[in-house]
TrEMBL record:
GO terms for molecular function: mechanosensitive monoatomic ion channel activity. The keyword Chaperone does not apply. The chain crosses the membrane at residues 27-46, 79-100, 112-130, 151-170, 176-194. GO terms for biological process: cellular response to osmotic stress. Residues 196-264 form the Mechanosensitive ion channel MscS domain. Signal peptide: none annotated. It is a multi-pass membrane protein. It is found in: Cell inner membrane. Its main location: membrane. Keywords: Cell inner membrane, Cell membrane, Membrane, Stress response, Transmembrane, Transmembrane helix. This is Mechanosensing system component YbdG. The keyword Repeat does not apply.
């Protein structure tokens, strides 16, 4: 108080000087205030520039000598610029009794406003420090794929909440607890207003604790059209960059309330599944004659298998005295069975199939579109473009190999098939319908 009175005497002295110069008192007090206010503003501007330049210069020199990136992020997030504003605020606090010495009633409200700004500046500085910590943590291996943004946003909301309480207390002159008590009565409204924030906060904690999603994961959520890489997880939303370079934003709490596919397990395992069928035309399935077996024995991947199976079948039929004039009697090889064996041998020796994961060729239930022969195997490449190329190469080969086993791939009649039937001389409607039914079967 004595210091404030001392400073106010300086302001009164300048007013007295102006009145001694012949200026009326009611004019001198305003002229004195404006002159001192102009000097204060000039001093504030000069001190702010000098302090910021000194701090930033020191920070840049220090950052250049260190290998850590933390100080670089301090500069990037303007931490030193915010700290530099503390010096002008100290000057303002000390100068208020001088500038407004003749208007003492103004000093307390202005000091209250300055104190409120000090609270805001403290919040902004702490927020800048939080952003600095966030940016630095994202560069470390431990936190690179964690939803750091969510926790920073929660702490930021808490800072603004505490700051709001302090500013309210300064402006109203009431205690902080009075405001907290008033908020208790309005808790239902607050819960409604901040519903998404609260849900997002809870979801962020669950997502992080259960390790459901990390930054960099490939996820698929068809309900929201998301199929791509997670690029950001914050308090209320998850941003997914789709493979067509578009961005899909999903509310964070939907990750725990709805289902989605996370492909991280596939990428970590090093194998991606192929599960696709070739539909064989049932009418092309047949028993193999001796001539057929000899012809197919020239195919390297099944030659040894055919030799062993033929000896086994011949021994069985001989022991049972089976009449093999009809192939249906006893045991016989079928072209589709040999084709399945060929597919199995082909994927076993393929360079891009994962040999330590499931490799299976199975026959599914016959349908109206033929007999499905399903290939269930994993590639040793998980990258999408490589995976598609490997799968295409495998099925290109198998579809071309079908005819060597006297099999046909099922397909519906095309327009060219119909035109060819119409083009044949003597073709009437009845024969056309009969031919089309034959093609279906």
């Amino acid at each position: 108080m004595e210091t404030a009175n001392h400073f106010s005497r300086i302001g009164h002295w300048t007013t007295a000087y102006l009145t001694d110069m012949g200026m009326p008192l009611n004019v001198a007090v305003y002229v004195n205030m404006l002159l001192l206010l102009a000097l204060l503003l000039l001093l504030l501007y000069t001190s702010k520039i000098a302090t910021r330049t000194a701090l930033r210069g020191t920070a840049h020199r220090f950052a250049a000598k260190t290998s850590t990136q933390f100080d670089d992020y301090l500069i990037q997030n303007r931490v030193f610029s915010l700290i530099a504003q503390a010096v002008p605020l100290v000057i303002v606090v000390q100068a208020l009794p001088i500038v407004f010495a003749d208007f003492e009633a103004w000093i307390k409200p202005l000091r209250t406003l300055v104190d409120a700004y000090i609270v805001l500046l403290s919040i902004w500085t702490l927020q800048a420090l939080l952003r600095t910590c966030r940016d630095f943590m994202k560069t470390t291996a431990l936190f690179k794929d964690k939803p750091v943004d969510s926790f920073v946003q929660v702490l930021t909301i808490f800072l603004y909440f505490v700051g709001g309480l302090l500013i309210f207390s300064l402006l109203t002159g009431k205690s902080v607890w009075a405001f907290i008590t008033a908020m208790g009565a309005a808790s239902a409204i607050l819960l409604l207003v901040f519903k998404d924030t609260i849900l997002g906060f809870v979801a962020s904690i669950q997502v992080s604790t259960n390790d459901m999603v990390r930054i960099g994961d490939w996820i698929t959520m068809e309900k929201y059209g998301a199929d791509g890489t997670v690029v950001e997880i914050n308090l209320t939303t998850v941003k997914v960059q789709n493979f067509d370079m578009t961005i899909t934003t999903i509310p964070t709490y939907y990750l725990i309330s709805d289902s989605f596919i996370n492909w991280r397990g596939m990428q970590a395992a090093g194998g991606r599944r192929i599960k696709r069928s070739i539909h064989i035309k049932i009418s092309s399935i047949k028993y193999l004659s001796e001539e057929d077996v000899q012809r197919l024995s020239k195919i390297g991947l099944v030659s040894e298998y055919l030799q062993e199976r033929q000896q086994e079948i011949a021994a069985y039929n001989k022991a049972k005295h089976v009449d093999k004039h009809l192939l249906i009697n006893g045991r016989s090889l079928t072209n589709i069975g040999v084709f399945r064996r060929y597919i199995d041998a082909y994927i076993q020796q393929h360079e891009f199939t994962h040999k330590h994961m499931t490799m299976m060729v199975r026959q599914l239930e016959p349908t109206t579109t033929g007999m499905p022969i399903e290939l269930y195997v994993f590639t040793n490449e998980v990258r999408w473009e490589k995976y598609e190329l490997i799968m295409a190469d495998i099925f290109d080969h198998l579809l071309a190999a079908v005819r060597y086993f006297d099999l046909e791939v099922f397909e519906y009649p095309a327009a060219d098939d119909v035109r060819q039937l119409f083009g044949k001389p003597g073709t009437d409607k009845n024969s056309l319908y009969a031919a089309m039914e034959a093609m279906k079967n």
